[in-house]
Each structure stands twice: as structure tokens, then as C-alpha cells.
Amino acid sequence: MPTALITGASSGLGEQFAYALARRRYGLVLTARRAERLNAVAETSRKLGAEIATAIPVDLARRDAPREIFQRVQEAKTHVDYLVNNAGFGTNGRFHELRIERELEEIDLNVTALVAMTRLFLPAMVERRAGTIINVASTAAFQAVPYMATYAATKAFVLNFTEALAGELAGTGVRVSALCPGPVRTEFQAVAGQTSERMPSFVYLDAETVVAQGIAAAESGRSVHIAGVANFIAAQSNRFVPRALVSLIARRIYRPPA
Description:
About 50% of the residues lie in helices and about 15% in strands. By secondary structure, the protein is of the alpha/beta class. The protein has one domain (about 5-255): Rossmann fold (3-Layer(aba) Sandwich), CATH 3.40.50. Helix 1 crosses helix 7 (about 205-220), helix 3 (about 65-75) runs parallel beside helix 4 and helix 4 packs parallel to helix 5. The protein starts with a strand and ends with a helix.
């Protein structure tokens, strides 16, 4: 039975990854901070077809959390065939006014934990010459985003890190893909403190659609997938539009209320 490990699995994209892979009969290892919500996702996943769905409540922003998860998986003698690095959050506001502790936590979760989880579980995949890793990035990875400066920078790291790994792992049987969604109707906006609605509604995708596209892109061997036609056009247009103009547009979209 193949096994998938999904971080940030208690809601949003992580929850939908759990359900999609459960329907494909993957065994699941699910991690997130909220134990009650995580257990509910595990129970639903079992009903959808996952023979095993293990919940590991943990805060991945802790530096020792990835190794703790790895040790739990090792002790259970589980081989992780599919890793989804989904856990992450954003902050919105003027950088000099945001709490430094929260900004550093954002980096630890979005970047440090993702790198650690990949490094811990990748060697066994390479040895077996089979495996899939999906790193959830964002269309924010393609440009600087005023008022979400730290978030966009972390996602740029995820995108470049993933593309580099995909190049290194060519021919090994391990597929690595960066999933870059635009706006998705999840808890992200509330956590980030985004209270304004300046983004047109047509660019929003539902989480289930984004996950389905991400899984299909990884299966086809694509190292990067931008979810949604409008988002693809917007992300690619950044290569042809002056960076100052891109920054101006982003500034008007993400500026917090006065």
C-alpha cells in the first residue's frame, strides 16, 4: 500500500489532498497543529478509501518538528511514497509594523520545515527510485508583493528550490513539482489578516480543483504548475511587464485598510 504524508492537512488544500489521495487508496500520514480537526480529516479519509490514516498533531514551525515526524514514521516502519509540503501561512501589512516573531515563524514554517521534510524523506525515495513530492508555492512566487513581503519571498524560495531539485533528480524516478495556486477560498485570507476584497472573484479557485490539477501535473512530470488560466496568464506576464508596474499593481491589491 503506497503512503502519502501531507503537512497542513487540517483544512484547505491539505485537507483536499488527503481526500483526493484517500480515493486513490493511499495510506495517509497527516500533520497539522489542530488535533481535533486533524482527526476529523483522518476519519473522513478512511471513509473515502484510505486503509490507514494516521494523525500526528504537531507545529511544524518548531525546528525539531520535522525530525519528530520522521522518527514517528520510521518507528511505524512506514515508507513514504508521496510527500505534500503544504503547511504554511501568510501575513498582510506594513512590514515594519508586523510582529517580528510572527514573520520569523512564517519563514520557519513556509521554508525551513519544507526543506527539512524534503531532506528527511527524499533519500529513501531516491534509493527506491520512485516517489512524488509536491511543494505548495503560490503565484506570489513570481513577483515581489508589497504588504505581503515575507510571504511572497518564502514562496519564491519554494519555487526555486523545487525547480532545482527537479533538475537534480531527473532520471532517478522521483518526481518533484511546485504547485502555484492563486487565490483559493480557504482559511488563508483570515489567517493572513486580509479583510479587503480587491481581487476579482473570477480568479478564485476552489481547493478541490487546485489539488486535482496539482496531482495531475506531478503525475505528468511537470516541475511547476500554475493553477487556473487567469493565474497562469498573470504569472507569465510578469516576464514582460516592468517590475515597477507589477509592484504598483500588487501594492494596490494588497494594501491593508488605513
